Amino acid sequence: MTIKAPTLSEIRTWPATVPVAKAATALGCSRAQLYRLIRVGASPVRTLSLGRERVVVITASLVRVLSGEEEFLPHDERLSA
Prior knowledge:
Elements: H1 8-12, E1 17-19, H2 20-27, H3 31-39, E2 47-50, E3 54-58, H4 59-66, H5 75-80
Antiparallel strand pairs: 1-3, 2-3
Helix pairs in contact: 2-3
């Protein structure tokens, strides 16, 4: 079964944060792949850690990435730019 990716207009109506699985669908990757990218600091979207086990994606960051407004830079390069 293929899950249909949401449109950018739909994503703009999402709450301020969304689960990693939902963001992965919007990005066109698997939940496992996005978790790997988050773990190694290479996620294209900004995240929040809520406790030791829960991570959520910031929807505004997801919108910026998908609309081409934010170019992905590894975490270290964002801090030094």
